[in-house]
Every structure is written in C-alpha cells, then in structure tokens.
Amino acid sequence: MSALLQLACFQMLIYAGMWAAGWVILGEERKAVLHWLGFNLLLALGLGLVSLRPAGDPWFTVVLANLVLAGGFLLLYRGGALFLRLPVRDGELAAAMLGCIAFALWSGPIPHGPGWIHPGAGTAALIGWTLLAGSWRGRAALTAQFGARTAWVALSPQVLYGLVQVLRAHQIITLDATAVQLQTHSAANELLVYASMLSAAVFNLVYMFLIVLRLMGRLTYMVDHDALTGLFNRRAIQAMLEREWARWRRMGKPFTVIALDLDHFKQINDRWGHPAGDEVLRQTAGRLQGQVREIDAVGRVGGEEFLVLMPGCSAGDAPAVAQRLHQALRNTPVEVDSQAQLQVTASLGVAVVGVGDATVDKLLARADLALYRAKHGGRDRVEFDHPPAAAEVAARQDALA
Question: Which of 1, 181, 238, 334 has its CA 20 to 30 A from that of 328?
C-alpha cells in the first residue's frame, strides 16, 4: 500500500505543477487556480504522510495527515466558489475545519478504549460534506454559465466521490478502525486509493476544461462585441442583418433598421475630454438596450454611430419605437462626473425592409439616407425612409427593361 500511496502522492504533485503553470498564464482566474494548486499540494503532503505509516510518528502520520487532507478539500471547495463567482462562506469553512481539528485531537492517533473512533472518520465526513455541498451550491451557477449538460458532467464524479467518503466515514465509525486505515493492505483500501486517484484526475481535468470553456466564451464575446459599450460590433450586427434579410426573403417576416448618431459628439470630447465621451457612449448603449426587446439587437458601428435591428417590427410599429428611443436619450441627462450633467440628443434614421430593397446594403443605405436628412434638418429628430410601393418598383424595372 505504501508504494500505491506514494504513486498517488506523485500524481497530485503533477497536477500541482499543472496549476502552477496555469497561475502564471491565467489572469482573472488566478485566485481559483491558487486554491486548486494548494488542494493538490495538500493532498500530496497528506498522502505522503499516510504512506509513512506505521513507522512514523502517529501524531504526524495519522492526525496531521488527516487534517492536511481535510484542508485540501476545503481549498477545493473555496476555489470552486471563487471560480463560479459564488460567496465563499469563510465562516462556514472555518467552523468545519475547527470541528475536524477538535475531533482529531479528541480521538488521538492511538486507540484508547473499545469505543475509540479513528480521526479519519472526521476527515472522511468533512470531505464528503465538502463535495456534496459544493456540488449542490454550484449546480445552478454551472448550469447558467456552461449549460446543463456540462454541469451534469462536471458534478457527477464529485457527487459520487462525496458519497464514497460519507460511506467511508460510516465504515470507520461502525467497523474495526484499524481494518479500514489506508495503510492496511486490503482490496477495499486499494480500491479506495484507485478511486481517489481517478477522482483527483477527474476534478483537475474538469476544472481545467471549464477554464478553457470560459476563455473561449470570452474570446467569442470579444470577437462579437464592442469593448467600450458591450454592444454588438459592426461585424456581428452585419451578420445578424444578413440572417434577418434571408428570413424576410424566405418567409416575408418584416424587420426594421434604425441608424442612430449622437449629435455634436465631437464637442463633448473637445470640451469635457475623452473619458466623458466614453461615459456618454456607455450610458447611451445602456439606454438603448433598456428600450428594446430581447429579440432586438443593438450595435455600435462607428465612433458615435449605432444601429438597431428589430425583427418583426413593421412599418406600422417602427415610428413609435423610434420615437421611444429618441426620447429615452433626450430626456435623461448623462452624468459624466459628480458635478456635470450633459444633455445628449441623437438623430435617427429609420428604414423598414421592403420589396424595393435588392440587398441588405440597399436597406442600410435607406436608413443612412434618413439619418442624413435628420442631421441636416436640424438634428435631434427622427426621419423615416418609407420603402417604395410594389407598383413603383415594377415601374422602375419596366423602365430599365
């Protein structure tokens, strides 16, 4: 058993090295990674102490070993909470660790009567509670951030090993404590060590996989979103327009495009500075998003230029929607600092898809034309470019023919 325990110890050191490299490379996840590094180091230390039984000092190889293992799983629990952006509950973790310490000191490393309970019972119970409670707490966050299937894959091994540890705590309490100690050579103990090694591999690989998924999600977000406002960028909104255009050509579903430009934005930058201009853009983005539906898309397509895509919005609905957006920007000043509020207005050009639009670029050109009329008609207003009627389109085609 000693050789098998040392092999498990070496395995944990490999994982610790992996997380040490991750700590150097990763940025925002460093706090969680540091906890998982500590988890593997404490497991390696604890298993190393266990492998010294029965020759070593029992206070080190039994009591300290169990407390080190318990502390490692508490680090795993806390690291998972940090990674999922959950409250860490340090008071709860401290109480659990103090209870485990008190139980280990009360039990002692050597049997002192017929009712003696090995300190490993407290460790196994704490590990089981840590894994089961962590799984229960993290299930909703994992599902929200990575999807139900990924959450199920990530939590199933953790729940199973937690149940194994609860069962082991029960066995230590109800059976002969000396028979279930890890250094005792038995098929059950060997199976437990192998299960622990497999579980450690799964824990570490799953968390690494989740970090990769999160990084991929951030990269995808950065590709499709404007860094300053969080809105869709030009590339993303263009792709959405193309899809909506194809849907209209296939099923006749109407949609509306609103081109929006902030009035006299250069004066804001010149007078108040670029940080104030950035704040105006951020607050403009927030107000636009607050006025549209979930199915609508808002994009920043230039310095102070925005584009709103509204699927299902027909010519009868577009005027009210555009006026609502216009008033939302006009009626609420933007706070650029504690002492300054800016009155920000915008010019809007609205175009609803119609039979005369040969391409999506033609539709965008009509929205830009309406915006041009709004800017040159005095700004702070909404202009509409109504699509030509079918008869007018047919007449133009006949004239070209």
Answer: 238
Residue 258 pairs in a beta bridge with: 308, 350
**Predicted local distance difference test score (pLDDT) of residue 38:** 95
Give the DSSP per-residue string, 29-90: THHHHHHHHHHHHHHHHHHHHHHTTTTS-HIIIIIIHHHHHHHHHHHHHHHHHHHTT----H
User: How many other C-beta atoms lie within 10 A of the C-beta of residue 362?
Assistant: 14
Under 8 Å between Cβ of 165 and 73 = no
Whether 398 shows a pLDDT value over 60: the answer reads no
Report the candidate in 103, 119, 102 with the shortest Cα–Cα distance to residue 65: 119
Q: Is 354 left (phi over 0), alpha (psi -120 to 50) or beta?
A: beta
How large is the angle between the packed helices 187-224 and 65-83, nearest 10 degrees?
20
Q: Which domains does the chain have, with CATH numbers?
A: 2-224 (1.20.1070), 234-400 (3.30.70.270)
- CB-based contact 228:282 (threshold 8 Å): yes
Q: State pLDDT tens for residues 345-372.
A: 999 999 999 888 888 999 999 999 999 9
Query: For 292-387, where are the alpha helices, taking DSSP H only?
Result: 318-330, 360-376
Q: pLDDT digit string (tens) for 165-205?
A: 998 888 888 876 565 566 666 677 778 778 888 888 888 99
**Residues 373/299, Cβ–Cβ less than 8 Å:** no
Q: H-helix or E-strand containing 261?
A: strand 255-262
Rounded Cα distance, 365 and 82, in Å: 48
Q: Are 341 and 329 in contact (CB under 8 A)?
A: no
Please give the Cα distance from 118 to 114 (Å, whole number).
Answer: 12
Burial of 369 (0-12, 13-18, 19+ CB in 10 A): middle
Q: Report whether pLDDT(113) > 80.
A: no
Give me the pLDDT at residue 180, please: 58
Query: Rounded to whole angstroms, how far apart are CA atoms 374 and 371?
Result: 5
> How many residues in the chain?
401
Query: What number of other Cβ atoms are within 10 A of residue 64's Cβ?
Result: 19
Three-state SS at 338: coil
